[in-house]
């Protein structure tokens, strides 16, 4: 399952390097992955077909096999691609935050915004639990690892409590994923910036009564 | 999808009432549901079979059809059954807690313990997202609703901040589910009481530095 970190979601099998070498190739690969997100998101892994993906992408069937050997392989690449898209959406916003508490608030708000724009992310990541457990687990492990690093950096700068670590990061990751399901996926009307403000206030100050 | 609240996970179709009326019937139904948990947990919905469930339960195939019309129907009943088993495991422990902050700690610790004993719960609840979305959503909505009620009761008793509500409850639910996946399902060595203590301390006091 170990793949070299390649072009967007790029799968490189042991047999041959399928990483596109030209800008045009990278564009085709992205078109295939975007089409796969719609196809798997709408129809699920088992009902989805390679021919429908290439039809949606407007590419020839041959292009598909330039980059992927099978439906399993593009699904695996798609999980990584979505994970990277999410990271690329959230990370610059979080890095621009003035401190770690506000970084977590911005991280949640931008995650909720991402979910509203990419509703298929839940179905795809969650289906990976059944199609390719390795990808499923890696998505959460890398996402939570980024939270852990943020927390520890914030603690080192003296912005938050000093004892933060992996347990806190998993707790925050779960909080975000559930709020994303409830207020990003199911309920598309509520004010995500208000949701993020309220959740972040609990994260910052806790449930205890203020004195 | 609205079912009357019946015997354990009991499904009652519109056509006929399949709720067991005798203790022996309730025992058979529970045997079938326990066997279904193992079968669906090990093989997944699509690979699972009714005959394997009755074999595991040590019951005749006819008993299956006394209570269920299809594999879909027992899967749906199983999701409700697991949801109820979880509630029956956690609720009395939580209710014995001296205050709401400790109730959340005990809730998390007993949830982690439940996951260690019922590892199949993740696979079954998560597969419901694809097999029966209504059951999937109801499981989380009822679980989170219990948290919300606990929080609001704790606030009314003056044990925690006064402004708690649904957003806080979804955040806590997600926290628990992710900690359960990481430390209940994947890692079976770590000390769950220590995990619960650390997560609860963040929940109680927040990420801010203590003065």
Automatic annotation (TrEMBL), chains A, B:
It comes from Sphingopyxis alaskensis (strain DSM 13593 / LMG 18877 / RB2256). GO terms for molecular function: DNA binding. SUPFAM superfamilies: Homeodomain-like, Tetracyclin repressor-like, C-terminal domain. Keywords: DNA-binding. The keyword DNA-binding applies. Residues 49-68 bind DNA. InterPro entries: Homeodomain-like_sf (IPR009057), HTH-type_Tx_Regulator (IPR050624), HTH_TetR (IPR001647), Tet_transcr_reg_TetR-rel_C_sf (IPR036271). This is Transcriptional regulator, TetR family. Residues 26-86 form the HTH tetR-type domain. The lineage of its organism: Bacteria, Pseudomonadati, Pseudomonadota, Alphaproteobacteria, Sphingomonadales. Pfam families: TetR_N. Residues 1-25 are annotated as: Disordered.
């Amino acid at each position: 399952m170990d793949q070299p970190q390649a072009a967007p979601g790029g799968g490189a099998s042991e047999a041959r390097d399928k990483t596109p070498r030209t800008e045009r190739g990278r564009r085709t690969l992205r078109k295939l992955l975007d089409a796969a997100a719609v196809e798997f998101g709408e129809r699920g892994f088992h009902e989805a077909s390679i021919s429908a993906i290439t039809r949606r992408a407007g590419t020839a069937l041959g292009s598909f096999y330039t980059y992927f050997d099978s439906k399993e392989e593009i699904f695996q690449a798609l999980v990584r691609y979505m994970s990277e898209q999410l990271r690329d959406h959230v990370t610059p916003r979080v890095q621009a935050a003035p401190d770690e508490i506000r970084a977590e608030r911005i991280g949640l708000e931008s995650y909720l915004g991402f979910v509203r724009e990419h509703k298929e992310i839940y179905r795809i990541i969650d289906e990976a639990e059944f199609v390719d457990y390795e990808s499923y687990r890696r998505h959460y492990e890398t996402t939570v690892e980024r939270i852990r690093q943020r927390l520890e950096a914030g603690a080192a700068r003296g912005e938050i409590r000093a004892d933060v670590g992996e347990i806190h990061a998993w707790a925050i990751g779960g909080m975000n994923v559930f709020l994303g399901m409830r207020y990003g996926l199911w309920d598309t009307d509520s004010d995500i910036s208000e949701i993020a403000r309220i959740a972040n206030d609990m994260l910052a100050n806790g449930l205890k009564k203020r004195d």
